[in-house]
Prior knowledge:
The structure is a single chain. By secondary structure, this protein is α/β, with parallel strands linked by helices. Helix content is 30%, strand content 19%. The chain has 8 helices and 10 strands. Strand 8, helix 8 (206-214) and strand 9 form a beta-alpha-beta unit. Helix 2 (48-54) runs parallel beside helix 4. 43% of the residues are buried. The structure holds 6-phosphogluconic acid. 6-phosphogluconic acid binds at residues 42-46, 73-74, 86, 146-148, 152-155.
Amino acid sequence: MIEPEVRLFPDLDALSHAVADHFAALAQRLSADGRDFRVALSGGETPRTFLELLSTEPWARRIPWERVRLYQVDERTVPPDHPESNYGMIRRCLLDRIPEATANFRRMQAERPDLDEAARQYQETLGLEFQPAGERLPDFDFMLLGLGADGHTASLFPGTEALAETERWVVPNFVPQLNCYRMTLTYPVINAAREIVFMVAGEKKAGILSRVLENSGKTLPAQRVQPVAGRVIWYVDREAAQGLRRLAKKTE
Ligand code: 6PG
């Protein structure tokens, strides 16, 4: 596995601008090669500014939206119009502003009572739409991940069953810490991604970011994100990086 690259920014706003540039450049490059841009988005708070930026200039005009296919990394077991819905956040920050993106968005239907069936159907959608040519797994071109204060990423929380999943690409996952189920992509799909971007910002993440990046162990869920052939880039702000001994690549 290639060493993760850490890019340091003054704050979340600067970090979000940089990820928007990264996203747009990759979308344009793939489109120039006649390829779709297959993207998996996490929820939570951190991606909000990034997603909003994509719907503003210069990014909105630069991105070939007809080529962008959007999927979810994970979802809470709430209706799509619930304040906690990851889809709802993505819709408010991006899809409502870029109609072309809505047509190519595949929502995880985690509100359904039969979560196993909903997860199986989402996996089926991935299989059909990726048509992995000879590949066993969907290989996302860009996967946006966040980092929880407990070291979780996606909805792969410490001590939960989904951490051990090696076959299914999408599973329901009971999270005792939250006393609820989530739906999440699993490590086989996450680690098949070509490019994984972590966005981590704020003082509250300083401790966990140091633990994830500076301990050689693989005990924390985010540490097990180790793409087989892809690369991982950590976009972090100064507050989150304050505990890092390693010199993050300074990016103004
Ligand atoms: C979710 C996310 C989750 C998130 C982290 C960080 O459903 O909450 O997918 O993995 O990325 O919890 O969340 P924040 O960005 O809100 O700190």
